[in-house]
Amino acid sequence: QVQLVESGGGLVQAGGSLRLSCAASGSIFSINVMGWYRQAPGKQRELVADISGSTTNYADSVKGRFTISRDNAKNTAYLQMNSLKPEDTAVYFCKAEVMRYYYSSYSQYWGQGTQVTVSS
Length: 120
Known about the structure:
about 60% strand; seven-stranded mixed sheet; about 0% helix; mainly beta
């Protein structure tokens, strides 16, 4: 099995910063894409940023403010969030495309989510 555990969420004032972490563990042979998604109340889950190798991709709403990175040795992805706005308030989820040992294809796994609340 594969588990993703997010951490680093919390309450912050507008203009502040938070750093989210997503640690993958279990029977992992390889991880392809790791990404961060968010879901605000009453809204659909949306992509925030993802990373594959050294290639990164960001939602327009977070470009220039958020930075995604990963430590392959630790199977961990990070999301550095700066200049936070109230509209960034959401539950943030981590997703990873993982190939498990003895498997020949990648499967998607999700973390349980971490709450980020930005006060005005």
